[in-house]
């Protein structure tokens, strides 16, 4: 079955926040979001919003740029927020334990190209792009239709 795909224009950060909150409502253990795009495109903001949407009580959600992984636990759900920018490849991913976490936790992964062959086949890829006019972001979401088509249909800005 082919991938499901949806393209959206996010005019503002608040639109990205609303979309992340809507998507978060559908996410659970074993789901992986691959957040792809250039520096400053909105990957960390989107991940932070998904995490805050899942938490029962707001808390600081720092970027994992230097720690590589930040973890959270909510009602038995482990959430891993990973920034793989500084990793050299899949061996580093295994060393972090991320390969196991992708089976059991909700994983939000920035710079997913570092996963290489460890990229989960059921992941949802979110590609963020700057617009030429500098206003807002373009976002393309894609993943296996059997898992993501129905969810993608519910998402809009």
Shape: globular
Sequence of secondary-structure elements: EHEHEEHHEEEH
How many helical stretches? 5
| Poorly predicted spans | none
Q: How much is the average pLDDT? A: 93
- Major beta sheet summary: 7 strands, mixed
Radius of gyration: 15 Å
Query: Can you give the helix content as a percent range?
Result: 25-40%
Describe the oligomeric state of these chains in a short phrase.
single chain
Derived from helix and strand composition plus strand pairing, the structural class reads: alpha/beta
Query: Could you give the count of β-strands?
Result: 7
- Distance from N terminus to C terminus (CA atoms, Å) equals 27 Å
Beta-strand content estimate: 25-35%
Spatial order of the strands in the main sheet? Answer: 1-7-6-2-5-4-3
Walk me through the topology.
Elements: E1 3-10, H1 13-24, E2 32-36, H2 43-54, E3 69-74, E4 77-83, H3 90-96, H4 98-104, E5 106-110, E6 124-130, E7 137-144, H5 145-154
Parallel strand pairs: 2-5, 2-6, 4-5
Antiparallel strand pairs: 1-7, 3-4, 6-7
Helix pairs in contact: 1-2
Question: Explain this structure to me?
Answer:
The chain is an alpha/beta fold. The chain is 31% helix and 29% strand. It contains five helices and seven strands, in the order E-H-E-H-E-E-H-H-E-E-E-H. Strands 1-7-6-2-5-4-3 form a seven-stranded mixed sheet, with helices on both faces. Helix 1 packs across helix 2 (43-54).
